[in-house]
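Long-time lurker. I teach an intro course on protein structure, and each term I like to show students one example going from raw sequence to a predicted 3D structure in token notation. This year I'd like something fresh instead of my usual example. Would anyone be willing to generate the tokens for the chain below so I can use it in lecture? Attribution to the forum is fine with me.
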Amino acid sequence: MNQYVIVSDATCDLPAALTEQLEIVVIPMEFTMSGKVYRHFPDAREMSFHTFYERTKNGEMSVTSQINSITYEKYFCPILEQGKDILYIAFSSNLSGTYQASRISADDLMERYPGRKIVCIDSKAASVGEGMLVYYAARKKREGLGLEELAQWVEINRDHMCHWFTVDDLNHLKRGGRVSAVSAVVGTALGIKPVLHVDKEGKLLPVANVRGRKKSLEALVDHMVKTCVHPEDQTVFIGHGDDMEAAEFLKSLVQKKFSVKEIIISDMGPVIGSHTGCGIAALFFIGTEK
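-- Reply from a regular --
Happy to contribute to a lecture. Here you go:
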């Protein structure tokens, strides 16, 4: 059986220590603030999570870009040159062109490296939801699954990686066209917080509006109650945008409702944060369906 490496992109928002422990290669993604381009790595070496969110709170805009072929070559070629294959799990194709770009690069590189294989899979997920899929895939790899077996496992199980989240600042959703300008103004005045999720197609959908931050966080756990399966065997993930207080509150709510195996709290990075703003809080778990 040929050796292979699991690769993902920085939108997976997994903690750096975890990617190192599980030997996951993470390709950085770029964002631009005040005319300067930064690369986001899991360890946030070029701009800390706190600094990024502070700058957005002060009114700076961040623009993101997808991974290009040069970057794919930089990270894929050393693996192929070691005689190893690649399983690449990409950011949702309904939220970015990253997956399509990876397929083009993979086809080109497999011609240049005959006998090597690059399997690209659309995670149909975002942020720590993508990261959770990558995390479980890495664990399955350690159990001995081969490349093709694991690729099939990922394609089947991606439909069960549930994403539920809320944001504290409606203005970033207004920028992305998720809410109207009027709704953002009125919602902010009334303390309305949207509850959103990522569906089976990897699309971001608003589901409900609730009044108040606490109720919006409780609503995330309510959805977990409805669809979660075998929580005692699960590693549940919580993501946040520079709001550890909200993340810890979510953790306490989950622990009151379930006896989960483990809860991992992770920072949500600038690539996702550019579209959500400071204060995003998200809950990720395995359920009957997304």
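Some talking points for your students: Residues 127-142 form the longest helix (16 residues). The longest strand covers residues 204-211.
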